[in-house]
Amino acid sequence: MSRFKNHNVWLAGAMLVLAGALLVTGCSRSPIGDTSATTEPVLLQRGSSTLAAASLVGELYADSVISAAEGGRLVLLDVVLDIPAGAVPNDTLFSISIPDLSKFYNDFGTSGLVFDKPVTVTMSYRDADLTGVDASSIRIGYFNEQSGQWEDMICTVDPVNMLVTAQLDHFSAYGLISDNPGGGN
């Protein structure tokens, strides 16, 4: 009889430990649960006036061959690339693509291009919808395709003129990001 009693006590203790472990780990990452605790940055969205224009335009694209000896500038909407002389060894095609005008997301090309001298990118957030956005958290982010995460760039922010500037050592996808105050996407 005491053998069954000890077995039942042990079984009840194991059930309590298992239930506690499920409560702590099993429910904390529920896909339908509350996700407001996320700290992942979000892309800034453009305001409604820009979105109305976006419905007429679609994707925006600009390119130019930049002289290796002289450098140059490429501008598209609210994005400026300043390429210094000597950034690339040969005259090179540079491009800016804004695939979705509703978001501050840009593809710079030629993708994967690495520079001998940093290229300066300046992005304006004058047309951003800043509803619920902490403007002090706005920065340029690089999208790391391997991790699937935005990585912060070292930036200079001019809040008066609503400009963010960073130095790039390679081309890829970049965007204006901010902290996620509401936890949504």
Mean pLDDT: 80
Ends distance: 59 Å
Oligomer: single chain
Strand content: 35-45%
Count of alpha and pi helical runs: 2
Q: Tell me the major beta sheet.
A: 7 strands, antiparallel
Helix content: 10-25%
Topology pattern, helix = H, strand = E: HEHEEEEEEEEEEE
Structural class: alpha+beta
Query: Which consecutive residue ranges, at least 5 long each, have pLDDT under 50?
Result: 14-37
Describe the global form. Answer: globular
DSSP strand count: 12
Structural summary, described in words:
By secondary structure, this protein is of the alpha+beta class. Strand 3 (72-76) and strand 4 (79-83) form a beta hairpin. The protein is built from 2 helices and 12 strands. Strands 1, 2, 5, 6, 8, 9 and 12 form a 7-stranded antiparallel sheet that branches. Helix content is 19%, strand content 38%.
Q: Concise description?
A:
With 185 residues, the chain is of the alpha+beta class. The chain contains 2 helices and 12 strands. The protein has helices spanning 2-26, 48-57; strands at 42-43, 60-66, 72-76, 79-83, 92-98, 105-109, 114-124, 139-144, 149-152, 155-158, 163-170, 173-178.
Key descriptive features of the protein:
single chain; 185 residues; alpha+beta; 7-stranded antiparallel sheet; 5-stranded antiparallel sheet; 2 helices; 12 strands; 19% helix; globular
Blueprint of the fold:
Elements: H1 2-26, E1 42-43, H2 48-57, E2 60-66, E3 72-76, E4 79-83, E5 92-98, E6 105-109, E7 114-124, E8 139-144, E9 149-152, E10 155-158, E11 163-170, E12 173-178
Antiparallel strand pairs: 1-12, 2-5, 3-4, 4-7, 5-6, 6-12, 7-11, 8-9, 8-12, 10-11
